[in-house]
Amino acid sequence: xxxxxxFAKIGAPVTEHxxxxxxxxxxxxxxxxxxxxxxxxxxxxxxxxxxxxxxxxKPAVRDxxxxxxxxxxxxxxxxxxxxxxxxxxxxxxAWASEIASDEVRAAMISxxxxxxxxxxxxxxxxxxxxxxxxxxxxxxxxPSPEPVQKDRWPKDRDRWKR
Length: 162
Hints:
35% of the residues lie in helices and 12% in strands. By secondary structure, it is an alpha+beta fold. It is flat.
């Protein structure tokens, strides 16, 4: 159905935790995986309704209802690592040849492939230690001699008496 396909285009995470099960009388019923997502989706009801209708030629859904139920697991589609040139492949194999564990070697090769084909960073990478630069201590001014404080009251007078 076109409505179900339009719902699928909403994308993750909504489609990972809910799936349409029925459209009857303009009311789309969704199965939701657990109660936490059921609560969350009730807050997003208007946005879900708008996005489903936006994907159709004319609005066919006038309400969305949520029901706690089972949701089929979506298959993870992993992207395959990018292809490397022969020189890059040789470099990666040289790095990996020193790793004893097969599991760790395979993970390093995959990470290196992705890393080598990643575009350069938008801003320059600053060399040096991580974190903020250490502060240089500011020179302390010489302490000035304290001014001699004069008593408000003469020594021979009792200040508590008027």
